[in-house]
Amino acid sequence: MPNEPWVSVEDVANHLGITKDAVYPLTNPKDLPAQKIGRLWQFMLSDVGHRVKASGTESAGSEPETVPPGRD
Question: HSE of 11 in the Cβ direction (CA atoms, 13 Å)?
């Protein structure tokens, strides 16, 4: 199995079709696997792809569905 390169926040944002600012809140093991190397977040695109496919609830870059107050 070839070694997969680590990619930057910008690469992940481009891959998912979202802004870089939208990637940072996702950098935890429950949302998006990432590794902080020095002061930079790094990702493996295969991990990102697996996580997005596993979530299956929203497409990348879409707004979450909102529920009107009192309707939960």
Answer: 14
Q: Which amino acid is at 36?
A: K
Asked if residue 69 lies in contact with residue 37, where contact means CB atoms within 8 angstroms, the answer is no
**Whether 35 contacts 6, CB under 8 Å:** yes
For the chain, what are the domain ranges?
A: 9-48
How far apart CA 25 and CA 20 sit, in angstroms, is 10
Compute CA distances 63 → 22, 34, 59, 66, whole Å: 11, 22, 9, 9
Kindly give the confidence (pLDDT) of every residue in the chain, 72 residues in length, as a single tens digit, with 9 standing for 90 and above. Answer: 468 899 999 999 999 999 999 998 888 877 888 889 899 999 999 888 888 888 765 544 454 545 556 655
